[in-house]
């Protein structure tokens, strides 16, 4: 099946002049040119045009597009790359939709003072740390999980998190030993809390990486002021660190 230049331009939402320019610069030559000089395009040419238009939407210039296409081994490989890029674009749009939906839901609920927290990603503040320690996949999966929650579900999760932190602080102030049964029960609760977050080693049941993760997070409570502040002071953070490290060493 072939399309004339006018048919292809209409279907692609561009002008015939654009297609002629692509031909002129060697980016998209017609499949054949009739005796009357009319350009015709087959399925292979249309597939190439799809790639060109996608890259144009991504902001790439024609020279850069030509370089990418020249490096492609075959059309099927290019189409697979095309699909991957479209899927990434779809995921970005879906995340924006979820964010706007949460904003609407929060406004309808009365726009609480902490609405900014509800609308932020689950681990946006720690994106670099998450990616460097556990990879891009862990960050994205956990953020998608968070944005997939309703406003009430986010509130409930944050209440549970605050309750866990408060229990840690109370145990530290009471002078509990990090190895005590109470401290170890809090450590077990903390690990269960982590295992609810998709993308983490604890959620995926990877024992070796889970131990590494728990130890890494334990150290961050002391090393990173943002985490230390959650537990009132350095002593409280050190108590949580030691309890988690003991749990990882003896009970995981």
From TrEMBL:
Give the matching SUPFAM superfamilies: Antibiotic binding domain of TipA-like multidrug resistance regulators, Putative DNA-binding domain
Q: Which GO terms describe its molecular function?
A: DNA binding; DNA-binding transcription factor activity
Record has DNA-binding as a keyword = yes
Task: List the InterPro entries hit by this protein, alphabetically.
Answer: DNA-bd_dom_put_sf (IPR009061), MerR-type_HTH_dom (IPR000551), MerR_fam (IPR047057), TipA-like_antibiotic-bd (IPR036244), TipAS_dom (IPR012925)
Q: Which SMART domains match?
A: HTH_MERR
What's a Pfam family in this record? MerR_1
Cross-referenced CDD domains:
HTH_TipAL-Mta
Q: The HTH merR-type domain covers which part of the protein?
A: 1-71
Query: What Gene3D superfamilies does the entry give?
Result: 1.10.1660.10, Antibiotic binding domain of TipA-like multidrug resistance regulators
Q: Could you identify this protein by its name?
A: DNA-binding transcriptional MerR regulator
Q: Which UniProt keywords apply?
A: Coiled coil, DNA-binding, Repressor, Transcription, Transcription regulation
* Coiled-coil region: 69-103
């Amino acid at each position: 099946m072939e399309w004339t230049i006018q048919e292809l331009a209409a279907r692609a939402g561009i002008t015939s002049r654009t297609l002629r320019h692509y031909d002129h610069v060697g980016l998209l030559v017609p499949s054949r040119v009739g005796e009357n000089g009319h350009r015709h395009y087959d399925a292979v040419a249309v597939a190439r045009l799809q790639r060109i238009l996608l890259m144009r939407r991504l902001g790439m210039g024609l020279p850069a597009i030509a370089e990418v296409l020249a490096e492609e081994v075959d059309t099927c490989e290019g189409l697979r790359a095309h699909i991957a890029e479209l899927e990434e674009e779809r995921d970005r749009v879906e995340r924006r939709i979820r964010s706007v939906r949460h904003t609407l839901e929060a406004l309808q609920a009365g726009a609480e003072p902490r609405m900014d927290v509800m609308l932020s990603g689950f681990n946006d503040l720690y994106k670099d740390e998450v990616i460097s320690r556990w990879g891009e996949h862990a960050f994205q999966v956990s953020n998608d999980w968070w944005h997939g929650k309703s406003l009430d579900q986010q509130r409930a999760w944050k209440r549970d998190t605050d309750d866990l932190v408060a229990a840690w602080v109370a145990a530290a102030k009471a002078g509990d030993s990090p190895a005590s049964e109470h401290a170890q029960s809090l450590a077990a609760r903390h690990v269960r809390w982590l295992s609810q977050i998709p993308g983490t080693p604890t959620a995926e049941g990877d024992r070796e990486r889970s131990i590494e993760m728990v130890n890494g997070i334990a150290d961050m409570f002391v090393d990173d002021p943002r985490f230390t502040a959650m537990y009132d002071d350095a002593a409280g953070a050190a108590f949580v660190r030691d309890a988690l490290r003991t749990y990882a060493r003896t009970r995981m």
